[in-house]
């Protein structure tokens, strides 16, 4: 054995030794404290473990609770009965039953885009990014692929593959100056970034639009955390903020979070049929014989219908009300924003114990700490949904304060301080 | 623009220019001749297009027709009603409803393995192969990753990612000599290969087992085309042929073909809980919050139940009878094998026109030709299923012969020739 070759890896774009080495410690500690590896049955919005512990999940991304909407479940069942199969197994480029086409037409109308479906946003990105890297989407010029350093791992995971088709670099978070420099140096640049990220931030869509207009830059957004939850008819953060609506902007979004179903949508504009065929035939797993199944299609058609009614803005409003209610109790960096995610600061030493106490009190919030986030920025991540009751939120906030969360400043109505800053008459007109 | 940098890609492991350049011509010609891009409703095993053309699909991988089994559809519906959601959106490493665990327990019992589920075999491979490359599955030593040159694109697509964690090479199809050479040179080798491939062949499982025993080689099989269709309780080709059943053998298989549902199963042996946790936490998309949905889980539980009854061997027998019936009419290189796929040889010049005539006569078979296969090896690919009727197969074969397929030698009973080769008495004992 000893005279046989050992291998030294390049580790240009990834390093499992490091990821597993540091990440596993995080997960092991979470699990030892009962905050990972939890199995529970869901009933009427409450989870119940095998030993009878009941808790409300405050780390579920179904922000509008459409996942348990009776019409969504009925839609899934209707599609199963209509098509009589979960899938007719053959690549859709050869023969397909109309399920995916009906879904794509419906979502296309809903979001005002050309829509291509995928089984997950990760599969969509793994399929599309290498085709962008090789210049087959866009104008045919191979772009420098610039990945935002904070982009989701399902995007960053495509770096080595893209690097075999073009050059790849990683830039600072939302580093517009670096992007402009690259646009000046390279014939074409593609920026890969979360439209809405899992720790509560949004991409600078309009500033990126200016670079797109000036230099022809492509932007690839993953807007999974804001689709449905944000914007008219749930169009999401990116498309609510005036992105360049032509082949230079590509947005993927999961249907598994606020949309409430399963699968993903790729939102395109200005692509010719020939390019759509290239996607269908060459975008990795988008071409294999494993598409969204008919249950997911039927559920998604039903959810799309709900998006067309007044129920959607009503659900969005309930979610926003719940976010505001939370903000009146607990101060976070996200206070006052529309994003349904809050990270309640804790110290690296207390975060696990705090999470455990909150769980014992009947609420699951997810502890995030080094190495998942930088040292000194640990916290309990809270995701607010339309379906949470006022009572649940108030009780959660009370427990969070008990375990060390910072109380929000008193409300204007209750605050004597506010009298001093009352608006002068001229400004109030 | 002209003074800005253009990029020259490395193209060490992939080349979209080449893949799209040559592949797109194949697809365009198929589509112009009406043999790709077909949309049709499925009813009682017959497909019907918008203009009323009816045809039987002979390129569907649901080899046992379990996809349309009433119990499978009912299982999907029962799970939707029971769980009340398609998915409770949160990474399963944190909190999960019991759906996936029940499925994995059932499939584990069925196949006699530790089973981890995934939304597709492609997602499973994209997640697992980089962890194998970095030595996190197996014995911790970073292996040389040897990809079979014919392995499915969902395996080959992982080469650039694996190459950032270790060394990667491509070997000739089933080149055991090369593999042994590499085993002598490197501390550890992992061979990546289809257990059963989409043009009708099987991996040399026993010969590979000998190398595994001698050198500790890992083998990563994709056995998607034979799971359910082959072996006791549908265990598939690989596990029917005595592979090494410990951490050195990893098999993935889709649940979307003969199994009849949606999703995929990873079959493992001898892995400790700590390693299973590493898979759950770090194997790419296996860790994201998009698992098999509850409809797919319920359908798969129902299909697993069918696998435990006498119905499974009966369906396998019907499929084999259909394969034999086909073989009595048409001669192919696959004649006499158990594999449900046949490639009926045609010339590069006639294959498309032949496929079109077969389609017009009411049968879809898929033309394969350069660049999908080598020049001079074009043909019409036929997939036989348990649900095809004798009448459908006989009619298909008659049309295939009309368009130039080679007729099989007459059957023994009908063949005067055979009298001369009748078995001598001693051999017949």
Map the helices and strands.
The structure is a homodimer of 429-residue chains.
Chain A: H1 16-32, E1 38-43, E2 46-49, E3 54-57, H2 70-83, E4 95-96, H3 99-111, E5 114-118, H4 121-133, E6 144-148, H5 153-156, H6 159-163, E7 168-171, H7 176-185, E8 189-194, H8 205-215, E9 218-222, H9 236-240, E10 249-254, E11 264-268, H10 273-282, H11 294-307, H12 311-329, E12 341-345, H13 351-360, E13 363-364, E14 366-368, E15 379-383, H14 390-402, H15 417-420, H16 425-428
Parallel strand pairs in A: 3-13, 6-7, 6-8, 8-9, 9-10
Antiparallel strand pairs in A: 1-2, 2-3, 5-11, 10-11, 12-15, 14-15
Helix pairs in contact in A: 2-11, 3-11, 7-8, 12-14
Summarize the structure.
The structure is a homodimer of 429-residue chains. By secondary structure, chain A is an alpha/beta fold.
Describe the structure.
- Chains A, B: Keywords: Aminotransferase, Pyridoxal phosphate, Transferase.
- Chains A, B: GO terms for molecular function: 8-amino-7-oxononanoate synthase activity; pyridoxal phosphate binding; transaminase activity.
- Chains A, B: Its cofactor is pyridoxal 5'-phosphate.
- Chain A is built from 16 helices and 15 strands.
- With 429 residues, the first copy, chain A, is α/β, with parallel strands linked by helices.
- The first copy, chain A, folds into 2 domains: 147 residues, Aspartate Aminotransferase, domain 1 (Alpha-Beta Complex); 239 residues, Aspartate Aminotransferase, domain 2 (3-Layer(aba) Sandwich), CATH 3.40.640.10.
- The longest helix of chain A has 19 residues.
- At the A-B interface, helix 1, strand 1, helix 2, strand 4 and helix 4 of A face helix 1, strand 1, helix 2, strand 4 and helix 4 of B.
């Amino acid at each position: 054995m000893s005279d046989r070759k050992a291998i030294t890896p390049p580790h240009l774009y990834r390093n499992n030794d490091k990821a597993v080495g540091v990440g596993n410690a995080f997960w092991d500690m979470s699990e030892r404290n009962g905050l990972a590896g939890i199995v529970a049955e869901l009933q009427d919005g409450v989870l119940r473990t095998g030993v009878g512990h009941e808790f409300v999940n405050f780390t579920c991304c179904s922000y509008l609770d459409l996942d348990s909407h009776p019409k969504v479940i009925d839609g899934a069942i209707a599609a199963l009965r209509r098509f009589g199969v979960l899938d007719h197994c053959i690549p859709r480029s050869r023969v397909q039953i109309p399920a995916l086409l009906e879904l794509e037409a419906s979502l296309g109308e809903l979001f005002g885009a050309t829509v291509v479906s995928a089984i997950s946003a990760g599969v969509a990105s793994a399929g599309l990014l290498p085709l962008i890297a090789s210049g087959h989407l866009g104008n045919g010029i191979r772009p420098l692929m610039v990945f935002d350093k904070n982009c989701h791992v399902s995007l960053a995971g495509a770096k080595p593959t893209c690097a075999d088709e073009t050059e790849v670099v990683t830039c600072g978070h939302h580093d517009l100056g670096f992007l402009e420099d690259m646009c000046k140096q390279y014939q074409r640049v593609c920026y890969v970034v979360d439209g809405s990220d899992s720790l509560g931030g949004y991409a600078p869509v309009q500033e990126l639009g200016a670079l797109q207009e000036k230099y022809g830059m492509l932007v690839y957004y993953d807007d999974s955390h804001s689709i449905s939850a944000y914007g008219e008819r749930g169009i999401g953060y990116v498309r609510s903020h005036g992105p360049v609506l032509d082949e230079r902007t590509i947005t993927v979004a999961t249907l598994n979070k606020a949309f409430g179903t399963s699968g993903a949508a790729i939102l395109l504009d200005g692509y010719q049929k020939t390019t759509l065929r290239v996607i269908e035939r060459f975008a990795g797993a988008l071409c294999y014989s494993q598409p969204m199944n008919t249950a997911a299609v039927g559920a998604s058609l039903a959810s799309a219908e709900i998006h067309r009614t007044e129920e959607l803005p009503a659900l969005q409003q309930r979610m926003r009300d719940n976010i505001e209610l939370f903000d009146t109790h607990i101060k976070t960096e996200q206070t006052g924003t529309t994003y349904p995610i809050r990270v309640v600061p804790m110290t690296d030493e207390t975060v696990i114990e705090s999470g455990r106490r909150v769980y014992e009190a009947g609420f699951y919030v997810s502890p995030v700490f080094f190495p998942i986030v930088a040292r000194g920025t640990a916290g309990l991540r809270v995701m607010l949904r339309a379906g949470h009751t006022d009572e649940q939120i108030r009780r959660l906030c009370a427990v969070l304060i008990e375990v060390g969360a910072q109380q929000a400043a008193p409300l204007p109505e209750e605050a004597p301080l506010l009298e001093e800053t009352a608006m002068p008459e001229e400004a109030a007109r």
